[in-house]
Amino acid sequence: MKVKFNFSRLKIYAASLLFAIIFIVPASGQSTETVPVSRQPVLTQQMVNQYRTVYEYLLEIKLNVQQKHRLQNGMMQYWKLNNTEAIEQILSDVNYYGKIDELLSLRNSSQKIIVEAFRRDVNDSVSKIFIEAYDAMHPENIPSTKAKSFADMVGVWKRTDGLLAEKSYGGQPVGVSYTESETIEINADGNFKHIKVHSHYSGNCSQADSKTEYGKISVDGVKLVLEIQSGSEMVKDACTPSLNQKKKIKQHKESFPWAIKINPDNRNVLTLCWNTSNTTAVCFEKQ
Q1: Residues 6 or more apart from 270 whose CB is under 8 A from it?
Q2: Per residue in 183-198, pLDDT tens?
Q3: Closest CA to 223 of 123, 129, 135
Q4: Does the bond joining 41 to the residue before it have cis omega, within 30 degrees of 0?
Q5: Which residue of 1, 18, 37, 208 shows the fewest CB atoms closer than 10 Å?
Q6: Contact, 87 vs 78, CB < 8 A?
Q7: CA trace torsion 222, 99, 59, 147 (10° rounding)
């Protein structure tokens, strides 16, 4: 099932060192520090404060003066080093500022997931600040927010999705419908098998496409890394045979922010989720 799921500030690390000069501007409009960075929009003091406020609410913490200073320095580093993924995530997170209903819902559903992801982000200074503050305020949650590892991913995970067609007055299906199933089998030796099957129906026509991939899977902190080594894709269109095709999948690598969480609809079932954007993810149930 595709669901919305915010992993929050999950990121990869810095790359480019091409700098330009902009300023950190406090809410009053007075510049306090010059920072070499390589992209717009500028990092302002207001943005730093709003970002901090969002996470203080989500994690039910309060940073002290020293931690606030370290947080600002950590955010400045993202801009200095042109860490585009971290910057884009911060800009996305700042949009939650003032949206109490959304933040409360996210806090209730995902606080421990966010903390667990921060624990896996061991090399990031900002993550360390939030974990330090969280553990001081919520020591009872340390065991339940311990960092997940590759061993937690081993097994068979599956998701299903679909849409039923509407029915006419005569009871015949009309419009568009589809079914989709996807399974990923992860072995302890790092090998994986990924199968996805999608069937699409429109009127009297149907189209089916499928994909099978084999390769290696690993975990790099907050990133799930898939090295696709072989596989194939197939399309079969009943009404337009010219669209039929079958081709081999070229070797390539993909990576996604990931988390393992309890299924909110069935607390006895674990789900493995990875982000397809800042606000959406694909989630698989443990079989």
Answers
A1: 260, 261, 262, 263, 285, 286
A2: 999 999 999 999 999 9
A3: 123
A4: yes
A5: 18
A6: yes
A7: -20
pTM: 0.72
Cα 246 from chain centroid? 31
Integer Cα distance of 21 and 15 in angstroms? 18
Q: Whole-angstrom Cα distance, residue 77 to residue 35?
A: 9
Write the CB contacts of 89 (distance below 8 Å, at least 6 apart in sequence): 8, 9, 10, 11, 278
Which pair of structure tokens corresponds to residue 58?
């989500």
Do residues 161 and 180 lie in contact, with contact meaning Cβ atoms separated by under 8 Å?
Answer: yes
Residue 246 near residue 232, CB atoms below 8 Å? yes
Single-letter residue type at 99: K
| 131-140, Cβ contacts within 8 angstroms, sequence gap of 24 or more | 132/67, 133/59, 133/61, 133/62, 133/63, 133/67, 134/59, 134/61, 136/61, 137/59, 137/60, 137/61, 137/62, 138/60, 138/61
Q: State how far Cα 48 lies from the chain centre.
A: 22
Looking at residue 5, the DSSP 8-state letter turns out to be -
